[in-house]
Every structure is written in structure tokens, then in C-alpha cells.
Design brief:
The complex is a heterodimer.
Chain A lengths: L4 H9 L8 E4 L2 H12 L7 E5 L10 E3 L8 E2 L2 E2 L3 E4 L7 H12 L3 E3 L8 E2 L3 E5 L3 E12 L4 E7 L6 H7 L4 E6 L7 H10 L4 H20 L2 E12 L4 E3 L3 E4 L21 H8 L3 E4 L4 E5 L2 H13 L6 E4 L6 H12 L6 E8 L4 H14 L6 E7 L2 H10 L4 E3 L3 H16 L1
Parallel strand pairs in A: 17-19, 19-20, 20-21
Antiparallel strand pairs in A: 1-9, 2-6, 2-9, 3-7, 4-5, 7-8, 10-11, 10-13, 11-12, 13-14, 13-15, 16-18
Chain B lengths: L9 E5 L4 H13 L2 E6 L7 E5 L2 E10 L2 H8 L3 E4 L3 H13 L4 E4 L6 H11 L5 E3 L5 E4 L3 E4 L8 E8 L3 H12 L4 E6 L10 H10 L5 E7 L4 H12 L4 E6 L23 H10 L3 E2 L6 H11 L4 H22 L1
Parallel strand pairs in B: 1-2, 1-5, 2-4, 5-6, 6-7, 10-11, 10-12, 12-13, 13-14
Antiparallel strand pairs in B: 3-4, 8-9, 8-11
Classes of the chains: A alpha+beta, B alpha/beta.
Chain lengths: 418, 326
């Protein structure tokens, strides 16, 4: 589960992680009001307006007008996802914040992480400016090869850490945390010495990372990334940006996270599927697939590609699929208009194939199907299931094996292309 | 021979009176697994024989704690069906009771809990398989977990996989071609699992019944790359591999908690390349797993691999003893 920067910072504040003062806004008018009352009137003359979308690279990203597809302009320059505001000839801070927010909201922000379609900006975060001496990088995540958390820091902040790892791996310093020992000071000192810190900056760094680690553990994060982590001119470390991913398996411990979901950031079909506990991911292909089990679902997608198609979705109806789940899954899969053929691949182990067949029949009462439906059922009660489908009088294409299913997909696509 | 479980295995079931535990215990007993007892806190001292449509062929004693159960039954394996919020506690209880083989079927255990479990496993007397796995099955002898027994038949191929139904598919392809399996092992799709590919390869490599190995991986993590390294250095038996998720988009979790390409890491192509360079027979299509094994076994020279495999077995054992010393 992903959340916005401003939400991440609200959570980190509970753990006293050093942050700048900031407030989220949802309209241009609010941006002006907040910029005045919360910042300008209190003597803060430099602020930053940041677009809130679930993707990184916002500072370098460009905002386009969704109607004209032209880049939006502000004060004679191309508008980016992050705008620094100081009083000048264009106006005072509040007025400029209002103008910036008006251009940003509703714009389509394209960054290297969003893909060319970008994301519509609907929320903004206004933060006080900082006098930055140097930018660093800090993240905490699971190192899967060691089954332990790793804290990674780098003196190369504000850039993509993947690039640093590739070009200057020596600039990344990491320590692993043994859960039986915990995040001890010696580990943090190793990081601080590795970055060449001293004096007040050294002490501030230790406090920062110690609190960040506590937040990571107690919030059940799967990733906590601060990029950039900045050292201010008065030698304090503060988080300029914050990215938090949660461990979905731990959501039962944090029911309050549900309030942080931004439904605008989710695909409507995926949201619908989640209601029925279906694991569905929308893709941009032309062959829909419905499978039981995540591994077999991925394998079925691969098979579709090898057969000359492109998977339109990932859909795992799960091990204990009942009639309703199958019916809902089928309906959701079929609501994607790009689907030109469908492959249903069920290996009945625990799940009984006749139940799956009944689910498909139930779904067909609600959904009109105009594309070829290839069905491959194997395992428990497969014979009974095939009888149900045959008796329906509907035109299913029954595949005898995984291999045969692939051939039928190829054939169906070439027929529909002809 | 086989790995990890056979007809002598004495199995406990933790969470035996729950609906999942009941259903699958009935299935395991029907397969021939020797289930010697169950654990459900608060129901100790009773006997249990299933409920509703899921009836056991015999009733089994239920205990309050794993310690009690092990003391009374001398069980050497346990299968865990406890719901996710309490599952890590159940695994830790089994580790503390020194059960040699712990198989955790439960899906959805928080990673934070599993970090603690992983730390507790170090230096313990237990091996954990899973969590979020289908368990393991030695055809004709013993089934621990939820694999459908009808797919498997005894024979020379060891199967190890991160997936559930895809494992059944691969095993079914083998069985349909008349090729049997020594043991089928599902290691689970979570970011932290107790038994990794490398551990499974070490066991299959040392098992004289196993003549060839099928490895089924998926996107995410580096377990397949580590397996490739281990195969290149230690395994002389032929290995056939398939990696699921070539068409999966980066940054999206594909059903399994561990199946995600993040920061450009964990792609199927990188894993396939690593396995290829280790001499593994990589199949592009999941429909060709069985046939690839059939080709390998039919072209394999009959005598020399047996010798090599016993040498490799010695190597694997000596490696293990080194590891436990360090």
C-alpha cells in the first residue's frame, strides 16, 4: 500500500522524526490562505509547493494541460511538480502560491516513474523552505537475501539511488539490523562515520536515523525512503521528502491506514476487485485471463505472450474460490474493453473445477460475452465441470492441456484479426 | 529415499480444529500421512476426528501446547494452519519445542513477525518450510500441507517451487508423461521463507533417489540467482527451470507478497540469464516443463551421474557441517 508524502510525514511526526513545517491543501484558494496565515504572516518568506501523486521524480517532472497536452507555464517557465516560492516582482508569497496551485491542480504530472500518461494532480503539500548545506539519502527496507532490515545511506542525495548503486556503489553505506539486537548506536555511528560527519551534524544524524528506524518498525513499513535527507546550514538533519510503503500483510494491525487510501490513485477495476478479495491487476494487453494461484496466473500471462497475445490483466481468484468469487472475477475481467479473447486456466487442487464452472455460468447471466472464451480445467472434478460447460450450449473453447490452451489463444487472436 | 518427509514421519497439526486445519488434516490422513496429534490452545486433553463433511479415518489427541504434544507423541514434524495474526507465535512455539520440521501453510504473516522467526531459526534444531506455501509431498508416502495428492507419483525428479498451483501444474505434466517425483516441495511466495532454493537444492543433490531437479521460480528477490550460483558450484544433477512473471509490470505485486520487481531488481530475465549461465535447462513456456525433463532423462547417460551425485552428496554434507560450526 502506498501513501502520499504529506501523509507519510504526518506519520513520521508521531515518532519525532525531524521535519519541516508543512500543510496539505486541495484548492488554489486554500493554497493562498495557508501560504499567508501559516507561513508568510509568521515570517517565513520562502515556501515550497509540492504536487502529491503516488510517484517519485516530481521535482524534475513536467506538468501538462490534460486538454491541450501542452506544458503548463508559470512565471515564464515550464511548470514542474515542485515549485519554490519567494516574494519577487510576480507578487508576494501568498499570491504566488495561489497562482502556482491554480496551475498545478488538475494538471497532468509526468515523471520518470509515472509513464507517459502521467498522473492528475489533485492534492498539494506546502512546506517551509530550508537553507540546505548538503543533500543525503537514507532508506530502510528488507534485505531479502539476509532476511534482515538494511539501513542504507549515501552522500549522493536527491538523485535516483539505483543510479548511484550502479555508477558509484562505494558511495552507498549500509548496515543490517539483527532483530534480536535491535538498532544499536554502534550501527548508526558506522553510518555517520562513513558519511564523514562530525560535531553537531553527527549527533543530529544519529537521532534522525534512530527515530526513523523506530517509525519503520512500529508502522510495519516495507520501505521508508528519505530522499533527499538534508543537512541544513545550522547542522540539523531534516527529511525533505518521505516515501512510505506498508507491508500489506500487517494492515490488520493498522486499521487506521484505510483512511490514507487515495482512491484517485487506484484503477477503478482494481478497486472493485479488492472489494471481493480478488487479486486483480489491470494491464494494457488484449487477452484476459482468470487463474487460481498467483504463480500459475503469472505463468498463464507468460503463455499468452508466447502465443502471440498480450495479457490484459493479472487475476488470481485464489485457492478457495467459490461461485460468487469466480462470477465477480469474470465480470471484472470482462469489463476491460480491450479484451479480445479470454483464457480461463484452473488447476483444481483444493478448489473444485465444477464450482468454477458454476461460477462462470452464473457470471454469464449478467455479462454478455462476445469474444472467444478458452477454458482449461484440470484436476479435481474437471470432468463434471466440462459437462456443465458443454451442457450450457454456449460456445466455450475447451482446451485439453496448458499447451493446447496456448494454441487456442493464438488461433482465436488470428481469427479476430482476420 | 526422498527429502524431509517419508512414511516414518510423525506429524502434528497446529490449528487442527480450525476449518482449514480440519479439512487438510482429513486430506493428509487420507493420503497416508501419519498424523499423531494436534495442537489447539484450550482444547488439550480431548480427541478429535474432524467435523461436518471432513472426517478423519482415526481420531487424534489434541494438546494445549506443542511441548506437550511432542512429549506425548514424539512427533518430528508439524504443519501450521494457524491464522496470520497468530501464526508467527505458532512457529516460534514449534521452534522452542525443537520440532525438526516446521511447515507453515498460513498466508499473510507480517514481514516484521517473520524477521523475528528468522532470527529464532538461527542456531535452532528446526527447519522451517514456508510460510505462504503449499507444503511438501513425498509421493505414495507422506503429504504435509495442501498439495493435491493425485497429481504426484513416485519417481526420480525432485520438484521445488515458490508457487502453489503452478507446482501442481508442473508435477501433473511430469506424471502425465509417466515421470515420477522423489519429493515435491513448495517453499512459499513470501519475502522471508525458512527454506530457500539453495537449501532445497542441497537436499535434492544429496538424495540418491533424485536424478533430476525441477526449479520453478518467479519474479522478485534474488533467490533464483543464489540458486544459480549454488548449482554452478555444487549440483551435478540436471536441473530444469522455469521463471514465472516475464510479462509482469515493474513495481506491482503479483499476488504473492514476494513477487515484485522493485528498483529494476528481481526481473525474470535476470534470473533466467543467471540460471542459463549455471548450465540449467531453462524453459520459456510453462507448458514445456514436463517435456524438458523427459528429454533430459531420455538422453542422460545411465551410469556416471549416479557416481557424481554421490560425490556431490558428500560435498553437500561437508558444506553443511562447516556451516553449522561457523
Amino acid at each position: 500500500m502506498n501513501i502520499h508524502e504529506y501523509q507519510a510525514k504526518q506519520l513520521l511526526r508521531q515518532f519525532d522524526v525531524p521535519l519541516l513545517d508543512g500543510k496539505p491543501v486541495f484548492t488554489a484558494e486554500d493554497a493562498g490562505v495557508v501560504a499567508y496565515h501559516h507561513f508568510e504572516a509568521r515570517g517565513i518568506s520562502a515556501i515550497v509547493v509540492k504536487a502529491q501523486i503516488h510517484a517519485g521524480g516530481r521535482g524534475k517532472g513536467i506538468i501538462y494541460d490534460p486538454e491541450t497536452n501542452q506544458p503548463r507555464m508559470l512565471f515564464g517557465k515550464q511548470l514542474r511538480g515542485v515549485v519554490v516560492i519567494r516574494p519577487d516582482e510576480y507578487g508576494n508569497v501568498a499570491h504566488k502560491a495561489y497562482l502556482a496551485a491554480r496551475q498545478m491542480l488538475g494538471g497532468r504530472l509526468v515523471t520518470h516513474q509515472t509513464g507517459p500518461e502521467g498522473k492528475i494532480v489533485r492534492r498539494l503539500f506546502i512546506e517551509e523552505g530550508a537553507a540546505i548545506k548538503k543533500e543525503f539519502y537514507c532508506s530502510i527496507l528488507l534485505d531479502r537475501s539476509r532476511s534482515q532490515n538494511v539501513i542504507m545511506v549515501s552522500s549522493e542525495g536527491g538523485v535516483e539511488i539505483e543510479r548511484v548503486a550502479e555508477e558509484q556503489p562505494e558511495k552507498i553505506i549500509q548496515v543490517h539490523v539483527d532483530p534480536t539486537i535491535g538498532c544499536q548506536q554502534f550501527l548508526l555511528r558506522r553510518l555517520a562515520f562513513g558519511l564523514g560527519l562530525e560535531g553537531a551534524a553527527f549527533r543530529s544524524f544519529l537521532t534522525f536515523v534512530e527515530r526513523l528506524y523506530r517509525a519503520y518498525e512500529e508502522l510495519d513499513c516495507s520501505l521508508l525512503e528519505i530522499n533527499p535527507l538534508v543537512l541544513t546550514n545550522d547542522d540539523r538533519f531534516v527529511a525533505l521528502d518521505a516515501k512510505v510503503n506498508f507491508d500489506d500483510n500487517a494492515l490488520f494491525r493498522h486499521p487506521e491506514y484505510l483512511d490514507l487510501v487515495d482512491t484517485d490513485e487506484e484503477d477503478p477495476l482494481e478497486r472493485e476487485a479488492a472489494k471481493y478479495n480478488l487479486s486483480y491487476i489491470k494491464l494494457d494487453g488484449n487477452v484476459g485471463c482468470m487463474v487460481n494461484g498467483a504463480g500459475l496466473a503469472m505463468a498463464t500471462m507468460d503463455l499468452i505472450q508466447l502465443a502471440g497475445g498480450k495479457p490484459a490483466n493479472f487475476l488470481d481468484v485464489g485457492g478457495g474460490a467459490n461461485v460468487e468469487r469466480i462470477a465477480n472475477g469474470f465480470r471484472i475481467m470482462m469489463s476491460d474493453p480491450n479484451v479480445r479473447a479470454v483464457l480461463i486456466n484452473i488447476f483444481g487442487g483444493i478448489v473444485r473445477c465444477d464450482r468454477v464452472a458454476n461460477g462462470i455460468m452464473q457470471a454469464l447471466e449478467q455479462v454478455k460475452v462476445t469474444v472467444p472464451v478458452i477454458v482449461r480445467l484440470e484436476g479435481t472434478n474437471a470432468k463434471e465441470a466440462l459437462e456443465i460447460l458443454r451442457a450450457s450450449g454456449l460456445n466455450f473453447l475447451l482446451a485439453e492441456s496448458f499447451e493446447d490452451a496456448a494454441r487456442q489463444v493464438t488461433a482465436a487472436l488470428s481469427r479476430s484479426a482476420a | 529415499m526422498s527429502i524431509l518427509c517419508n512414511k516414518r514421519t510423525k506429524l502434528l497439526v497446529q490449528g487442527i480444529t480450525g476449518s482449514e486445519g480440519t479439512f487438510h488434516t482429513a486430506q493428509m490422513i487420507a493420503y497416508g500421512t501419519n498424523v499423531v496429534g494436534g495442537v489447539t490452545p484450550g482444547k488439550g486433553g480431548t480427541r478429535y476426528s474432524g467435523k461436518n463433511n471432513d472426517r478423519f479415518d482415526y481420531d487424534v489427541p489434541v494438546f494445549n501446547t506443542v511441548r506437550d504434544a511432542v512429549a506425548a507423541t514424539k512427533a518430528d514434524a508439524t504443519c501450521i494452519f494457524v491464522p496470520a495474526p497468530m501464526a508467527a507465535d505458532a512457529i516460534l512455539e514449534a521452534i522452542e519445542a525443537e520440532v525438526p520440521l516446521i511447515v507453515a501453510i498460513t498466508e499473510g504473516i507480517p514481514v516484521r513477525d517473520m524477521r523475528t522467526v528468522w532470527a529464532a531459526l538461527r542456531g535452532s534444531r528446526s527447519r522451517l518450510v514456508g510460510p505462504n506455501c503449499p507444503g511438501l509431498l513425498t509421493p505414495g508416502e507422506c503429504k504435509i500441507g495442501i498439495m493435491p495428492g493425485f497429481t504426484a507419483t513416485p519417481g526420480p525428479v525432485g520438484v521445488v517451487s515458490r508457487s502453489g498451483t503452478l507446482t501442481y501444474e508442473a508435477v501433473w505434466q511430469l506424471t502425465s508423461l509417466g515421470i515420477g517425483q522423489s519429493t515435491c516441495l513448495g517453499i512459499g511466495g513470501d519475502p522471508i521463507v525458512g527454506t530457500r532454493f539453495v537449501d532445497a537444492l542441497e537436499l535434492f543433490n544429496a538424495d540418491p533417489q533424485t536424478e533430476a531437479i525441477v526449479l520453478i521460480g518467479e519474479i522478485g528477490g534474488t533467490a533464483e540467482e543464489e540458486a544459480a550460483e549454488y548449482i554452478a558450484a555444487h549440483v551435478r544433477k540436471p536441473v530444469v527451470a522455469y521463471i514465472a512473471g516475464r510479462t509482469a509490470p515493474p513495481g506491482r505485486r503479483m499476488g504473492h507478497a514476494g513477487a515484485i520487481i522493485s528498483g529494476g531488481k528481481g526481473t525474470a530475465d535476470a534470473k533466467l540469464a543467471a540460471l542459463r549461465s549455471a548450465g540449467v535447462h531453462v524453459v520459456e513456456s510453462p507448458a514445456h516443463i514436463g517435456r524438458a525433463v523427459a528429454n533430459l532423462l531420455s538422453t542422460k547417460p545411465k551410469k556416471s551421474p549416479a557416481k557424481k551425485s554421490s560425490a556431490a552428496a558428500k560435498k553437500a554434507t561437508s558444506r553443511k557441517s562447516n556451516k553449522s560450526k561457523s
